[in-house]
Amino acid sequence: MARLSFASLRVRLLLLVLLAVIPALGLTLYTNLEDRQLRKARVQEQALRLSRLVSADHERLIEDARQLLVTLARLPAVRERNRVACNRLFADLLTQHSSYANLGVIDADGNVFCSALPMTGRVYAGDRAYFRRARETRDFAIGEYQVGRITGKATVNFGHPVLDDAGHVPAVVFAALDLAWLNELAGQAGLPPGSLLTVIDRQGTILSRYPDQAKWVGRPVPESLVLKAILA
């Protein structure tokens, strides 16, 4: 009986201890969970703020490109297809726009007939996405990742149709955005230490990756689940 009473007493003591500890343990777990959720919320808020800042910079960049191409599409040298005057004018403009790798005009057959940079022989660009979209939509168009056939650089090109008096599209003016410059813009975004900034096109190809641009630009984004969520 004494042994049984002692065992019973020990069980009761253990229960009392557990009853005393469980609320404290629960409070500790709840506090840790709440702290983790707060940290997660702060990280998400910071990421959203930075993405909005970078997005605003890119929207301004795209709008600047659109306005430039609208102006170029109305120039007499472009509308009259004066190759010499167009080449000279675009070469001068390129020195004033360091973000672009090249400026030019593509005729209705897809051949580049005007370029700020010198060309050696015929250069075909009729298969480029920005050229096709600009002709089909008769509006400003944004291309995808490419390596320029004149520049040899990684670029994203913008295009805008040239309309004649009958409303036809005899040509498309283009501006080739240098992706190396785009990465410099990412470096000026003031990212916190350890942060990564990735810019992708509609195909999921990396246009800019800060840091380690050379390693990633031109490759498909590896985070497939993230990409699907973004594109959706």
SSE arrangement, N to C = HHHEEHEEEHEEHH
Structural class designation: alpha+beta
Q: Could you tell me how far the N terminus lies from the C terminus, measured between alpha carbons in angstroms?
A: 72 Å
Number of strands: 7
- Content of β-strand: 15-25%
Strand order within the widest beta sheet: 2-1-5-4-3
Radius of gyration: 30 Å
Helical content (DSSP H or I, runs of 4+):
40-55%
Quick one: overall form? elongated
Give the integer mean of the pLDDT values.
82
**Poorly predicted runs:** none
Count of alpha/pi helices: 7
* Largest sheet geometry: 5 strands, antiparallel
Q: How would you describe this structure to a colleague?
A:
The protein is of the alpha+beta class. Helix content is 51%, strand content 19%. It is built from 7 helices and 7 strands; from the N terminus they run H-H-H-E-E-H-E-E-E-H-E-E-H-H. It has helices at 2-73, 76-79, 83-94, 129-137, 179-187, 213-216, 224-231, and strands at 100-107, 112-115, 141-147, 154-162, 171-178, 197-200, 206-210. The strands form 2 sheets. The chain has a 5-stranded antiparallel beta sheet. A two-stranded antiparallel ribbon has the order 6-7. A hairpin with a 5-residue loop joins strand 6 (197-200) and strand 7 (206-210). The longest helix is centred in the first third of the chain and has 72 residues, at 2-73. It starts with a helix and ends with a helix.
